[in-house]
Amino acid sequence: MSKPFLSVENLTQSFPDGKGGTMTVFENATFGVEEGEFVCILGHSGCGKSTIMNILAGLAEPTSGVVKMDGFEVSGPSLDRGVVFQNYSLLPWLSALRNVMFGVKARHPDWSKAKVAEHSETYLSMVGLDGDAIHRKPAQLSGGMRQRVSIARAFANHPKLLLLDEPFGALDALTRGTIQEELLKIWGGTKQTVFMITHDIDEAILLADRILLMTNGPLARVAESVEITIDRPRSRTGIVEHPNYYPIRNHLVHFLGRRSKELAGQPSNGAPQSPETVRIDFTSPGPDDAGDESLRLRAVTN
Ligand SMILES: Nc1ncnc2c1ncn2[C@@H]1O[C@H](COP(=O)(O)OP(=O)(O)OP(=O)(O)O)[C@@H](O)[C@H]1O
């Protein structure tokens, strides 16, 4: 089988534990992400999600193991990998438009200023920002508007991989809902590969093709890869009507509430730790198991 677009191989991260020893956050984590996929990662605080994200971004080096993108080993930051953090990280002295233009100019040094501006404005309008707002500096924008600028900036650069670290964590529920749908629209148009950390189960189901579930740390594992068997396009109000929504949601809640603890703390003994694929689908029961819910679930979980 050919290698996935993004391939994480035997990734191990240890840190000093502050008492003269070491603490292993995760060991031999091994998983892949296909080109154009939207993957969310869920797990309790401290299991190592941000550590994985920083390694994928090239901002940190793992203790051992490698990350390959498009066949090349990731080392150091690159314009091919765009990152959006929770705290927006906009340049405070530049307007919204100039914040987006800054990255586009770096990506396309041969483009005219007018072309850079036009491209940047297109992406700002995709996240609902136009008119006077795009000429304001970050301090003159609301939190939701700042996060829209960060998302427009990341997508406008067309990175091969977009890394989103809890991008909506600081937003109120209403703004969050609107921007989630804007993110889906913009992703639907560009089909970039996205890897996103979130703590919000419903957000992950709405956005992702697949959800990676991590057990608790230390010695955390990416234990499951849960396919989101809900057709696109999706909307926040539409997905709850889908027959797979609650079975998937219940599976995730049960994992995070119980199994993430039960499965935690097991050393890998040197073997690659790959997640188990879970596919929950109540829309197409097999001929022999119609009507028997437990059978259907078992049949699709491998
Ligand atoms: N530079 C560091 N030095 C020592 N320990 C670290 C360092 N960075 C992270 N850790 C530890 O590694 C573990 C994983 O941290 P990480 O931030 O990746 O978790 P997380 O899953 O992203 O948590 P959260 O959901 O709270 O953001 C934690 O126990 C943290 O204390």
Automatic annotation (TrEMBL):
One family name in Pfam for this protein: ABC_tran
Domain ABC transporter, residue spans: 6-241
CDD domains: ABC_NrtD_SsuB_transporters
Family affiliation: Belongs to the ABC transporter superfamily.
Name this polypeptide is given: Nitrate/sulfonate/bicarbonate ABC transporter ATP-binding protein
Molecular function per GO: ATP binding; ATP hydrolysis activity; nitrate transmembrane transporter activity
InterPro entries assigned: AAA+_ATPase, ABC_transporter-like_ATP-bd, ABC_transporter-like_CS, ABC_transporter_ATP-bind, NO3_transporter_ATP-bd-like, P-loop_NTPase
